[in-house]
Amino acid sequence: MSVERLRVLRELADRGTVAAVAAALSMTPSAVSQQLKALAREAGVPLLEPDGRRVRLTDAGRALVVRADEVLAAVERAAAEMASYRGSARGQVRVALFPSGAALLLPHVLTELAASGVEVVARDEDVPPSEVPRLLADYDVVLTHRDERSPSVGGARVSSRVLMREPIDVVVGPGHRFARNATVMPAELADETWISVRGGFPVDDVLRSIATVTGVQPRIAQRLNDFTVIEALVADGYGIALMPHYAVRHPDLLMLRLTGVRAARLYDLATRPHAEKRPAVAAVLAAFQTAARKVTDESD
């Protein structure tokens, strides 16, 4: 049944005449009568009966008015709730993040939003950028990462914005021959044993760039996506690694700037197009921007 026709019926119950309903709703009396007749057809029973020169509600009509009150009250509550969402940032926002990005930024984001009325429900999702459209079926915001030479994940159904840039460094243990170096060139790495990540991630993209420059395929001993494990193996001398600058936590490791190739990853925030028009989502995006500024400012 039409909500607007239920509204006309309720107005008739309240005001008593078709003319009064027409005046209240800025309609003609003929239009009001047509709406009531259409509602009766939808209901499948007579809703009105003659009462002298007027009409009155039948028993079925009065019963339907009670239900109309319930329906219209629910619609009005929904409209009020939506108005509150438009006017202020509140509600739940589902966020997917890759693990090292979550460790770096999520605490700042949650602190920023602590008193805002926005609830962030975060999950770690360690997938290549190509999987972002799939993630957006379940999440409002996806934090992803890519090699800085790779194209954006944005498209017809994905809106993407660059959040920050993070250098990717060569990481060595304290006993390594490069331990006293500040920088290293690709040619110097040709004979090294690597602890790397699975294919499709920015660190692996940089390692392939090194291979292109040197003409030597890297000798990869292990492929692991947990940077904590990678750090432990490098610290114990099982190889060297490429790691994002802000992800290095092990106190014994040394970071060397890689020169001669572009070595960095970009953090992207992905949403459905126009998702930022929802105030809660806009607040989460802004919180990520603030978090990224804090992280990069602290490292300068």
Q: How would you describe the overall organization of this protein?
A:
By secondary structure, the protein is an alpha/beta fold. The protein has 3 domains: 3-87, Arc Repressor Mutant, subunit A; 91-165 and 265-299, 3-Layer(aba) Sandwich (D-Maltodextrin-Binding Protein, domain 2), CATH 3.40.190.10; 166-264, 3-Layer(aba) Sandwich (D-Maltodextrin-Binding Protein, domain 2), CATH 3.40.190. It has 9 helices and 12 strands. Strands 3, 4, 5, 6, 7, 10, 11 and 12 form an 8-stranded mixed β-sheet that branches. A hairpin with a 2-residue loop joins strand 1 and strand 2 (54-57). 34% of the residues are buried. The model has no long low-confidence stretch (mean pLDDT 90).
What features would you highlight for this structure?
alpha/beta; Arc Repressor Mutant, subunit A; two-stranded antiparallel sheet; single chain; 42% helix; 8-stranded mixed sheet; 12 strands; D-Maltodextrin-Binding Protein, domain 2; 300 residues; 9 helices; 3 domains
Q: How many distinct beta strands? A: 12
CATH topology of the largest domain: D-Maltodextrin-Binding Protein, domain 2
What is the CATH homology-level superfamily of the largest domain? Answer: Periplasmic binding protein-like II
Structural class: alpha/beta
CATH class label of the largest domain? Alpha Beta
Amino- and carboxy-terminal Cα gap: 63 Å
Multimeric state of these chains? single chain
Order of helices and strands: HHHEEHEHEHEEEEHEHEEEH
- Which descriptor suits the 3D outline? rod-shaped
The level of helicity is 40-55%
CATH architecture of the largest domain: 3-Layer(aba) Sandwich
Return the domain count. Answer: 3
Runs in which pLDDT lies below 50 for 5 or more consecutive residues are none
Largest sheet: 8 strands, mixed
Residue fraction in strands = 15-25%
Count of DSSP-assigned helices: 9
Give average pLDDT, whole number: 90
Q: What gyration radius follows from the Cα positions, in whole Å?
A: 31 Å
